[in-house]
């Protein structure tokens, strides 16, 4: 299994659980299946001994406990001077990274089960919000491109974010556990090295339910995976591990 991704970025493992038809919303599955999948998922997550994990804003909202108002989010940075990333004082061994381009999460704590919280933001974030994060001792990385034509469509440069995660925090292995859009964007950017999937013994069948990888428009493309490991876990849960090898043109 490859262990040395290009550049400073960490090795990224997309670790997910899905129904047989690729849906990832566990709520609504048979209770016994949901319990079995969660148990196996957490056990295997720990086996990677990763330095950190990363999710999108929606997944992180329950951990932040509060979100900012639309008026607060609308107050963007109007300056032209580049601002510095912030690493909160203290010694941290593991990290929880939240991709939150517009800074909607109003963190009440800088810790999730012992993992230090790091916000990944666009450069359009206001100084006021950055000061709020520093006051809460939440670290942050600025990894977006300021585009005056983008309006409120803040975005994060995922490749830059991954490089900063490696260089600023020394993360060697990062678990990607996002929703379909974040996972799909990371895959499209060529930033996933391994896909680890727990296949639940259930069919979801709900149209419109998020899938493992969701992409829209021109960013959608297929990726060649190489099967590295297959294992039957307890309660008929199947564990599949793939190495992400190369892009294809759909043929």
Description:
The chain is 24% helix and 24% strand. The chain has 251 residues and is an alpha/beta fold. The chain folds into two domains: 1-51 and 172-251, Dihydrofolate Reductase, subunit A (3-Layer(aba) Sandwich); 53-170, no CATH class. Strands 1, 2, 3, 4, 5, 6, 7, 8, 9 and 10 form a ten-stranded mixed sheet that branches. Helix 4 (127-135) links the parallel strand 5 (115-121) and strand 6 (139-142). The chain is globular and about 55 Å long. The chain starts with 10 loop residues before the first strand and ends with a strand. Residues 1-6 and 147-152 have low confidence and may be disordered.
Main attributes?
single chain; 251 residues; Dihydrofolate Reductase, subunit A; 2 domains; 10-stranded mixed β-sheet; 24% helix; globular
Give the low-confidence spans: 1-6, 147-152
Tell the overall outline.
Answer: globular
Query: In total, how many beta strands?
Result: 10
Percentage of residues in strands? 15-25%
Helix content: 10-25%
How many strands, what sense, and barrel or not for the largest sheet? Answer: 10 strands, mixed
Integer count of domains: 2
Q: Distance N terminus to C terminus?
A: 25 Å
- Provide the structure class: alpha/beta
In sequence order, what are the helices and strands, one letter per element? EHEHHEEEHEHEHEEE
Can you count the helices? Answer: 6
Average pLDDT figure: 89
What is the CATH homology-level superfamily of the largest domain?
Dihydrofolate Reductase, subunit A
CATH architecture assignment name of the largest domain:
3-Layer(aba) Sandwich
| CATH class term of the largest domain | Alpha Beta
Instruction: Find the CATH topology of the largest domain.
Output: Dihydrofolate Reductase, subunit A
Give the C-alpha Rg.
18 Å
């Amino acid at each position: 299994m490859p262990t040395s991704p290009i550049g400073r970025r960490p090795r990224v493992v997309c670790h997910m659980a899905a129904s047989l038809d690729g849906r990832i919303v566990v709520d609504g599955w048979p209770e016994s299946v949901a319990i079995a999948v969660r148990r196996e998922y957490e056990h295997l997550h720990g086996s990677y001994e990763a330095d950190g994990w990363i999710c999108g804003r929606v997944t992180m909202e329950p951990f932040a406990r509060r979100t900012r108002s639309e008026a607060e989010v609308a107050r963007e940075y109007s300056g032209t001077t580049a601002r510095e990333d912030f690493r909160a004082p203290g010694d941290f061994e593991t990290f929880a990274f939240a991709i939150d381009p517009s800074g909607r999460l109003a963190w009440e704590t800088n810790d999730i089960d012992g993992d230090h919280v790091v916000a990944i933001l666009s450069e359009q974030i206001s100084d006021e919000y950055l000061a709020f994060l520093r006051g809460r001792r939440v670290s942050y990385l600025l990894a977006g491109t300021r585009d005056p034509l983008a309006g409120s469509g803040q975005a994060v440069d995922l490749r830059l974010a991954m490089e900063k995660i490696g260089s600023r925090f020394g993360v060697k292995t990062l678990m990607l556990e996002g929703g379909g859009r974040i996972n799909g964007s990371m895959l499209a950017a060529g930033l996933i090295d391994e896909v680890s999937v727990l296949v639940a013994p259930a069919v979801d069948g709900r149209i419109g339910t998020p899938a493992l990888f969701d992409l829209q428009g021109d960013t959608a493309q297929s990726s060649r995976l190489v099967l590295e490991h297959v294992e039957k876990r307890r309660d008929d849960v199947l564990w599949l591990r793939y190495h992400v090898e190369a892009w294809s043109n759909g043929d």
